[in-house]
Amino acid sequence: MNETFAGFGGTPLALHRVGSGRPVILLHGLFSSAEMNWLKFGHAATIAAQGYEVLMPDLRAHGASAAPHDPAAYPPDVLVRDLAALVEHLALTDYDLGGFSLGARTVLHAVAKGVVEPRRLVVAGMGVAGLDDWSRRAAFFIRVIDEFDTLPHGDPGWLAAQFLKSQKVDRVAARLLLGSISDLPPGLLASVDMPALVVCGDQDDDNGSSVELAKRLPDAVHVEVPGTHMGSVARKELGIAIAGWLGPASRLEALASGETGAHGR
Predict the structure, then answer these.
(1) Does 106 fall in a domain?
(2) pTM for this entry
(3) What is the pLDDT of residue 136?
(4) Is the dihedral of CA 64, 70, 75, 76 positive or negative?
(5) CA neighbor of 249 nearest in space, from 32, 89, 95, 72
(6) Cα(44)–Cα(243) distance, integer angstroms
(7) Geometric angle at alpha carbon 36, from 89 and 97, rounded to 5°
(8) Domain housing 108
């Protein structure tokens, strides 16, 4: 079932749902969509089969969501604000949260800054360098947008331009969004203290070391899956790894019930 909800400033954002049960929110990567990262290759279905309702928004300026051209629609950390709006819209109090690449950056920002409080966290396709070197990455994509129609085959930005074309990205909105994303000081990672899965492709070094990221999170495990940054998303192993770490939702509910009983609440 697909629907929309109001993000920051009332911007209409698309929401995709698969399955029923314990809620888990998954955010997609830069210039991608819920369809491309979570639905197309079966990851959402694999997770849903464990008893979860998988909730997948299209980020603003992505997928089926609105792509406003007004700079006021892109204040600092607007994606974090949109995530908070989704949690409020769904009235969630006990849920899991994850993201791939830009989605992973967004969930780490949101948790580290106390904006949202999921029970568990999934961080996919992300390393330490991807958190505090945003200006360099943004400059690369801004160049791709600015030189979109003149990039020659073989240029480092040519493949990125082709991906933007395939996803029908609104380049005006995308450029504005790039400017809204901020760095996350690595020192803030110590506050991300819920159980976390850091999962990354074995050939993915786009965002630096995922092993180092897992070490800096207080309660994280690291899992490697096959593939490059983009290739790992297209492999079933990514969804299997996430579903395996989350485990059956019924098991978590049983544990929670036991904890409640033990504490007399």
Answers:
(1) yes
(2) 0.93
(3) 86
(4) positive
(5) 95
(6) 9
(7) 40
(8) 2-132+185-262
Q: Is residue 49 part of a domain?
A: yes
What does the alpha-carbon distance between residue 135 and residue 181 come to, in Å, rounded to a whole number? 9
- Per-residue pLDDT tens digits of the chain, which is 265 residues long: 469 999 999 999 999 999 999 999 999 999 999 999 999 999 999 999 999 999 999 999 999 999 999 999 999 999 999 999 999 999 999 999 999 999 999 999 999 999 999 999 999 999 998 898 888 889 999 999 999 989 999 898 999 999 999 999 999 999 999 999 999 988 999 999 999 999 999 999 999 999 999 999 999 999 999 999 999 999 999 999 999 999 999 888 776 666 544 333 3
Residue 165 to residue 142: CA distance in whole angstroms:
15
Residue bearing tokens 């036991």? 258
87 CB-near residues (< 8 Å, 6+ apart)? 25, 95, 116
In DSSP terms, which residues pair with 101 in a beta bridge?
none
In-domain check, residue 247: yes
Number of domains in the chain: 1
Looking at 7-124, which runs of residues are DSSP E strands? Answer: 12-18, 22-27, 52-57, 96-100, 120-124
Residue at 204: amino acid letter: D
- Please report how the helices 158-166 and 134-146 are oriented relative to each other, as an axis angle in degrees rounded to 10: 70
Residue positions counted in the chain: 265
| Token duo for residue 215 | 């070490």
Reported in sequence order, the residue ranges of the chain that DSSP labels E, i.e. its strands, are 2-6, 12-18, 22-27, 52-57, 96-100, 120-124, 196-201, 220-225
Would 112 be classed as within a structural domain? yes
Domain with 208 in it: what CATH number?
A: 3.40.50.1820
